[in-house]
From TrEMBL:
This is histidine kinase. InterPro entries: HATPase_C_sf, HATPase_dom, His_kinase_dom, HisK_dim/P_dom, HisK_dim/P_sf, TCS_sensor_his_kinase. GO terms for molecular function: kinase activity. The keyword Disulfide bond does not apply. Keywords: Kinase, Membrane, Phosphoprotein, Transferase, Transmembrane, Transmembrane helix. Residues 228-428 form the Histidine kinase domain. It comes from Flectobacillus roseus. It catalyses: ATP + protein L-histidine = ADP + protein N-phospho-L-histidine. Its EC number is 2.7.13.3. It holds the Pfam family HATPase_c. The chain crosses the membrane at residues 12-30, 139-161.
Length: 428
């Protein structure tokens, strides 16, 4: 995954590389043009010096021809040949590729030349002046190397400046992100964000502050409502259950009346269970179970299985317990018992008759597996009142309580469905 700050750096680097690549032919054209212009001026200066010196020579035409012959042999950069008097006197420049006779090995070089006419003692002479031009491939190579060097320098500068500026400019964001990651809504404490000179971060902090205040306020109201409602329901529920028990003790009850009482008792038991679990959730969220001790999870699992033995035997379930290690867990005994009880009863409740349950425990995790056909929805399985079966006695809060207990101790709880088995894993 790419970081936000690296995206513009990548774009800037590609842009710099493209621009520097396009600059190579531009540099070559500029250097070539300037160089040829300088050579033309150089050749013109040589011509003017030759013409000036010819005027001071006291030679007759025959002697001059002898001297120019020797000159043409010794001085390959300039040549003078006699031509007809009617020849044009217009100067011209040219670029020619030919072998450089001054070098010991065969090599084709470029020459920038000036073709002109000079007059001496009434005769017209053709004057060629040629100067060696730097090779084009050498120019391109040098420019490419220099451009590559500056590109590397530019890229390293981009990286250094990007990191330096980013570390300073994004420090408030990193701190804000860390505060949000460690934020616990159940603590009902807002976050004091650091003041910053960056307008966007200030707007973000103000918006987050408003959202946190609203979330904390709603959470407090919800928690208060649940606590009050659960406490208020305890008394009428106890009265209703006692009244139902009194009806059961009446000797004149007939079969129809007993069925009505059973129809009342089942939803009443469900409501009572929901009320009890809601109170437990409220106490967990309020951190009312602060007593901590070292617990033997393996022994606790065996004790709970003994309590649930009749329930499992009524469905002809096979239970395998694999205790590869018996980790000592530090926590509240009531909460850990509740966690284990909810996981084991959930496995027994939702395993079809003659099914299989496997309980695996080691120093890293607890894995409770039970046979099944269809996978549950991982997005809803740990939500409150999310019931995965039509069984009426289920409150839909058992797994939500287990998840909350794991969250209380910073454990990870996940659900996996693999090879026709539901798996609930608690990673310590």
């Amino acid at each position: 995954m790419t970081k936000l700050l690296d995206k513009p750096l990548k774009a800037f680097t590609i842009y710099a590389f493209v621009i520097l690549s396009l600059s190579i032919p531009a540099y070559y054209w500029v250097v070539e043009t300037v160089w040829q212009k300088e050579l033309d001026e150089h050749n013109l200066i040589i011509k003017e010096r030759i013409v000036s010196q010819l005027q001071n020579l006291s030679l007759n035409p025959t002697q001059f021809d002898s001297v120019t012959h020797i000159w043409n042999v010794l001085q390959s950069g300039t040549r003078i040949f006699p031509v007809k008097k009617t020849a044009t006197s217009t100067d011209s420049t040219y670029l020619v590729m030919r072998e450089n006779k001054l070098k010991t090995h065969t090599e084709i070089d470029r020459f920038r030349g000036l073709a002109s006419y000079v007059r001496f003692k009434g005769n017209t002479y053709r004057l060629w002046i040629e100067t060696n031009v730097e090779e084009a491939d050498e120019i391109v190579y040098i420019i490419s190397v220099v451009s590559l060097f500056f590109f590397v320098l530019l890229a390293l500068g981009f990286i250094f400046l990007n990191r330096t500026i980013a570390q300073k400019a994004w420090r408030p964001f990193e701190k804000t992100l860390g505060q949000l990651k460690s934020f616990d809504l159940s603590a009902t404490e807002t976050i004091d964000f650091e003041k910053t000179e960056i307008q966007e971060f200030e707007d973000l902090h103000n918006t987050l502050q408003k959202m946190l205040y609203a979330a904390i306020s709603a959470y407090k109201q919800q928690k208060t409502f649940i606590e009050n409602a659960s406490h208020e329901l305890q008394t009428p529920l106890a009265i209703l259950r006692s009244k139902v028990d009194l009806f059961y003790q009446l000797p004149e009850l007939n079969e129809a009346q007993l069925q009505v009482l059973e129809g009342i008792e089942k939803p009443l038991a469900r409501v009572s269970r929901i009320n009890k679990n809601l109170l437990l959730l409220a106490k967990i969220e309020n951190h009312q179970f602060e007593k901590v001790e070292i617990l033997d999870v393996g022994s606790m699992i065996n004790d709970i299985l003994e309590l649930l033995q009749d329930y499992a035997e009524s469905k002809n379930l096979t239970i395998q317990v694999q205790l590869e290690a018996r980790p000592d867990i530090k926590g509240n005994k009531f909460l850990i018992e509740t966690l284990l009880y909810n996981l084991l009863t959930n496995a027994i409740r939702y395993t079809s008759e003659e099914g299989e349950i496997v309980i695996f425990l080691d120093s890293q995790q607890l894995n409770v597996q039970n046979t099944g056909i269809i996978s549950l929805n991982p997005a809803h399985i740990f939500r409150r009142f999310s019931v995965s079966s039509s069984e009426q006695v289920s409150s839909g809060l058992g797994l939500a309580i287990a998840k909350e207990i794991c969250h209380r101790y910073n454990w990870k709880m996940v659900y996996v469905f693999d090879v026709n088995k539901h798996q609930f894993k608690v990673c310590f």
